[in-house]
Amino acid sequence: MSLEVACLSFRQPYAGLVLNGVKSVETRWRPLLAEMKNCTLAIHIAQKDWEGDDWRNILTDNCAMKQSKVQELLESGDRFGRGVVAGLVDVGETWICAEDVSPEQMRELETAACLTGLAKKYLTRLSRPRWLTEPLYSRGRKDMWMVRIPAHLLPSDPEFL
Predict the structure, then answer these.
(1) In what order do the strands lie in the sheet with 122-137?
(2) DSSP assignment letter at 82
(3) Which PANTHER family does this entry report, sorted A to Z (predicted)?
């Protein structure tokens, strides 16, 4: 028995931030996840890291996170290594971020996305992150692809499937 779901590759630290529940908004230049609303998405951890430190500044400034907590999150996000499907997340609504969003609302969105410069990007809510029990080795791909996750790798709590 297995679960077949769409999969999307994320660079670190974003894959770990999503699966640890810190990042709850995904950003893309096109509405890639719009058709995935109310579906489950597998999170693949890419080989390469994200370039830039927006995420670190948001965690330390907006979230008032100590460096030790940031380091703990980074280590947790790398627990399965790279080039693996590491977990699942539920996909919510996708919308385009307007340019005239209030500064307060923009700060909230940037905090949820762990990224700045969101105007004109497509934002998608992510919820219920859960790690697989073990990594599933898989080569990453561009855009989304389908992946079959063996039942023994799925979280044991049926509420999270």
Answers:
(1) 25-28, 122-137, 84-96, 40-49, 2-12, 145-150
(2) S
(3) PROTEIN CXORF40A-RELATED, PROTEIN EOLA1-RELATED
- Angle of CA points 79, 14, 108, to nearest 5°: 135
pTM to 2 decimals? 0.91
**Which region holds residue 15: left if phi is over 0, alpha if psi is between -120 and 50, else beta?**
alpha
- Cβ-contact 21, 111 below 8 angstroms: no
CA 6, CA 142: separation in Å to the nearest integer? Answer: 12
Please provide the size of the chain in residues. 161
* Contacts for 69 with CB less than 8 Å, ≥ 6 apart: 59
- Give buried/exposed letters for 39-76 (b at 16+ CB in 10 A, else e): ebbbbbbbeeebeeeebeebbeeeeebeeeebeebeee
* Tokens describing residue 159: 């509420």
One-letter amino acid at 66 equals: K
Q: Three-class SS of residue 55?
A: helix
* Per-residue model confidence as pLDDT tens digits over 50-82: 787 888 888 888 788 888 888 888 888 889 999
Whether the CA torsion 132, 47, 66, 114 is positive or negative: it is negative
